[in-house]
């Protein structure tokens, strides 16, 4: 699939098995493969940090809550979003499973309901599970593979959205 970019370039979205496969279609490739970079590059420093959230019908909550839990894998936060409340969570280093774990969900509900009892009886709408691509430090660097310029941009962990604008500016400066 091709998308037109605002800078008169093209963005091609397709599956590749090696970065060299992209060399025939572009002089610069930006590798934002997330967990896929573990096999694509390969980068064995890249590990998943599994996150799990519970989404419930909003029982009237209007304020956000987040508690600093230090290095614990048991997170404690809830965020009202209109008719729903997203709460969590879990941060499980090295876990690859993408299916919701019922015991983890129950523990999340229990922790959040201790702070806000209305959450205990709220109807569960969905469970969300994701893998945060994490490494000792973000990989944001340029690499030459023959005539191909690859700019690696991955390993942001749970801060991908927070860091996206700054990393995009760095990528643009590299290309």
Record the strand order, biggest sheet: 3-9-8-4-7-6-5
Low-confidence stretches: none
Strand content: 35-45%
Number of strands: 9
Arithmetic mean of pLDDT: 90
Shape field = elongated
As a whole number of angstroms, the C-alpha radius of gyration is 20 Å
Q: Tell me the major beta sheet.
A: 7 strands, mixed
First-to-last CA distance: 22 Å
User: Helix- and strand-based class?
Assistant: alpha+beta
Contiguous helical run count: 3
Can you write the helix and strand succession as a string? EEEHEEEEHEEH
Helix content: 10-25%
Word description of this protein:
There is one protein chain. This protein is α+β, with helices and mostly antiparallel strands and 175 residues long. The longest helix has 15 residues.
List the helices and strands and how they pair.
Elements: E1 2-4, E2 10-12, E3 28-31, H1 37-40, E4 47-57, E5 65-67, E6 74-81, E7 84-93, H2 102-115, E8 124-145, E9 148-156, H3 160-174
Parallel strand pairs: 3-9
Antiparallel strand pairs: 1-2, 4-7, 4-8, 5-6, 6-7, 8-9
Give a summary of the structure in a few sentences.
This protein is α+β, with helices and mostly antiparallel strands and 175 residues long.
Notable characteristics:
alpha+beta; elongated; two-stranded antiparallel ribbon; 175 residues; 3 helices
């Amino acid at each position: 699939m091709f998308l037109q970019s605002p800078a008169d370039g093209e963005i091609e979205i397709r599956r590749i098995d090696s970065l060299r496969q992209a060399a025939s279609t572009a002089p610069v490739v930006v590798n934002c493969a997330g967990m896929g970079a573990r096999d694509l590059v390969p980068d064995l420093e890249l590990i998943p940090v599994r996150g799990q959230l519970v989404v419930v019908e909003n029982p009237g909550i209007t304020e956000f809550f987040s508690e600093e839990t230090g290095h614990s894998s048991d997170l404690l936060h809830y965020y009202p979003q209109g008719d729903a409340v997203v709460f969590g969570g879990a941060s499980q280093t090295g876990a690859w499973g993408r299916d919701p774990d019922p015991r983890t969900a129950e523990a999340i509900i229990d922790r959040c309901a201790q702070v806000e009892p209305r959450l205990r009886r709220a109807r569960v709408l969905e469970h969300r599970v994701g893998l945060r691509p994490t490494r000792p430090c973000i990989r944001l660097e340029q690499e030459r593979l023959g005539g191909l310029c690859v700019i690696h941009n991955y390993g942001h962990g749970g801060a991908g959205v927070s860091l996206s604008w700054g990393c995009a500016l760095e990528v643009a400066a590299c290309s």
